[in-house]
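Problem 12. The chain below contains 351 residues. Write out its predicted structure in token notation.
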Amino acid sequence: MERNIIELRNVCKDFNGHRALNDVGFYVRKNEFITLLGPSGCGKTTTLRLIGGFEQVTSGEILFEGTDITSMPPYKRKVNTVFQKYALFPHMNVFDNISFGLKVKKMDKRLIEKKVKEMLSLVNLKGFEKRSINSLSGGQQQRIAIARALINEPEVLLLDEPLGALDLKLRKEMQIELKRMQQKLGITFIFVTHDQEEALTMSDKIIVMKDGKLQQLGTPEDIYNEPKNSFVADFIGESTIIDGIMHEDYLVEFAGRKFKCLDKGFMKKEKVDVVIRPEDIKVVPTREGMLTVTVESVIFKGVHYEMMVRSNKHVFKIHSTEMVHASQEAGIIIGPNDIHIMKKERVADEK
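Solution.
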């Protein structure tokens, strides 16, 4: 049976009167890869630092395997952290950087050598023991930082935007490498990023945060396909979010016509937000469309075209392998499965 290795209960954190985290609660399963995702200032790094013991909660509890570690100092927690800037020792070679924690523990030299070689093999840097840190690329330094953390055999590895300084190609390669390492070692990873694609690529679960509050927790598929609110829908991937009216269960009106949908439980004539992903809109000849649109712009993205189209005052973003030239008309089809309805978060004040 899966068990919780980390649990946060009603955690709040204040900095000089500012509430950085507000009543945050979630759990992490053993051997899970979980990502804290959100824009800058949302509280994700603060959450990570609280788990690592580098900050203390204002209120609430943090549990490790059911034991309260809220006031426990960092060195007593069974977690290690990899920071964005790696914090490697430039005056030490690769071997000394990786083995630093084991030397502090006064471990046997032969065992240290064996473990360092195992770690270098794991991060695909076999034979780099004598290399200078300053001679390594950013991606190689990042792998050394991970090896240094993993050699201490933590039960949980905290990663604070460790891929942020890498170029796009290397970043994508390291996403795959990190997931491979996590699966091979069976260690729980808690990863912080503001990159939606990164979170979707690597995570077993994603926690979306905004303004110090948890917005949604779920699998990448749940977060992407069933966002809980318009913020999550807009932040995860790309979406068109427009005003609509729910006439009855499974029937919504937007852009001047009624559409069948799969949503229910709203009041009749309730104002709602309608969320549509760009890849879910099908482009067809004008006479076949549910709506007639005019193409305002076209950008070639490699695997698809990105088109901005307008139907009266409503603008839709479309990703399609079929291209329609700017200023031309086309039809669009949106199926019931591709329409996501959510309650209005903010209703404009009536005058």
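Discussion. Helices lie at 44-52, 94-104, 109-122, 138-150, 168-185, 196-202, 220-225, 230-235. Students who got a different answer should revisit the alignment rule from Section 12.3.
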